[in-house]
Amino acid sequence: SSCIALIVAAGSGQRFGAEQPKQYLDLAGQPVLRRTVEAFRRHPKVSAVRVVINPAFRDLYDAAVAGLDLPEPVAGGASRQDSVRNGLEALADSAPGLVLIHDAARPLIDSDTINAVIAALDTHPAALAAVPVADTLKRGDDGLVAGTVDRSGLWRAQTPQGFRFPAILAAHRDAAGLELTDDAAVAERAGLPVALVPAREENFKVTTPDDLTRATRALDSALS
Ligand code: C5P
C-alpha cells in the first residue's frame, strides 16, 4: 500500500532565536527543509511527500524547495499537533495505506531508519524512531538534585513516526485540542500498540544554533 511522508514545518522556531524559522536556515549549502524533504523523496518505499507550513513564510518555503515539484503545501496550526492534524486531513481524500510523520527540523534522517519504521508497520499499527536513554537522569529543583530517575526502559522519541493511515487520522481527530507533543502519544491515547524502532543519535532535532553547527559537522564528516 502507498506510503506518504508528511513533513511538519509550520513552527516559528522561537527557541532558536533567528529571524527565519530554523527549517529555512542554511545547512551546509541547502535549507534544512530541503534536506529533510529530499531524504524522503529519494526513499524507494515513500510514494509522495507533503509538507505542512505556516503560510506567512510561503516565500521562504518556495525558495527552499525550488525545483522539487512538490504538491501544494498544507497550512499548519498553532501547535504541532494542529499542524499534523491539518496535514492528515489534507491526505484523507487520497487515503494512503501508511503515513510517516516527520519533523522538518530533523534533516539528518537516514534511509535505514525510514526503512525500519516502515517495516515495523507490517506488524504494528504505529511505530516510532527512538533512542534509548544513556545518561543518568536527575530531577532538578531550584538548582539542586531532588532525586535520580531510573532510566531503565526509557527512550527519547524522535521522528519519523509511522502509522496505518485510517487509525492515526481517527486518533488525531479524537485528540484535537489536547497538548500532546508527538503523534505516538496520540496513538497511545487511542489504545494503538506503538513499536519502538531503535534509531540514531544523528537524527536529532535542530532546536538551537549549536544544533546547526553540530549538523554541519555531521555532514562534513560524512563526506570526508
Ligand atoms: O517546536 P518543535 O521543535 O517541537 O517542532 C517540531 C516540528 O514541528 C518542527 O519541524 C516544526 O516546524 C513543526 N511544527 C509545526 N507546527 C507548529 C509547531 C511546530 O509544524 N505549530
TrEMBL record:
Site location (Positions MEP for the nucleophilic attack): 151, 205
Tell me which UniProt keywords the record has, alphabetically.
Isoprene biosynthesis, Lyase, Metal-binding, Multifunctional enzyme, Nucleotidyltransferase, Plasmid, Transferase
Q: Which domain of life is it from?
A: Bacteria
Write out the ranges of the annotated region (2-C-methyl-D-erythritol 4-phosphate cytidylyltransferase).
Answer: 1-224
Example of a GO MF term: 2-C-methyl-D-erythritol 4-phosphate cytidylyltransferase activity
Q: Pathway of this protein?
A: Isoprenoid biosynthesis; isopentenyl diphosphate biosynthesis via DXP pathway; isopentenyl diphosphate from 1-deoxy-D-xylulose 5-phosphate: step 4/6; Isoprenoid biosynthesis; isopentenyl diphosphate biosynthesis via DXP pathway; isopentenyl diphosphate from 1-deoxy-D-xylulose 5-phosphate: step 2/6
**Required cofactors, per record?**
a divalent metal cation
Q: Where is this site: Transition state stabilizer?
A: 15, 22
Q: Does Metal-binding show up as a keyword for this record?
A: yes
Q: EC no.?
A: 2.7.7.60, 4.6.1.12
Recorded catalytic activity of this chain's protein? 2-C-methyl-D-erythritol 4-phosphate + CTP + H(+) = 4-CDP-2-C-methyl-D-erythritol + diphosphate; 4-CDP-2-C-methyl-D-erythritol 2-phosphate = 2-C-methyl-D-erythritol 2,4-cyclic diphosphate + CMP
Q: Which GO terms describe its biological process?
A: isopentenyl diphosphate biosynthetic process, methylerythritol 4-phosphate pathway; terpenoid biosynthetic process
Q: What does this protein do?
A: Bifunctional enzyme that catalyzes the formation of 4-diphosphocytidyl-2-C-methyl-D-erythritol from CTP and 2-C-methyl-D-erythritol 4-phosphate (MEP) (IspD), and catalyzes the conversion of 4-diphosphocytidyl-2-C-methyl-D-erythritol 2-phosphate (CDP-ME2P) to 2-C-methyl-D-erythritol 2,4-cyclodiphosphate (ME-CPP) with a corresponding release of cytidine 5-monophosphate (CMP) (IspF).
Family named by the database record: Belongs to the IspF family. In the N-terminal section; belongs to the IspD/TarI cytidylyltransferase family. IspD subfamily.
Which protein are we looking at?
A: Bifunctional enzyme IspD/IspF
Please name the source species: Azospirillum brasilense
Tell me the organism's taxonomic lineage: Bacteria, Pseudomonadati, Pseudomonadota, Alphaproteobacteria, Rhodospirillales
Question: Which gene is annotated as encoding this protein in its UniProt record?
Answer: ispDF
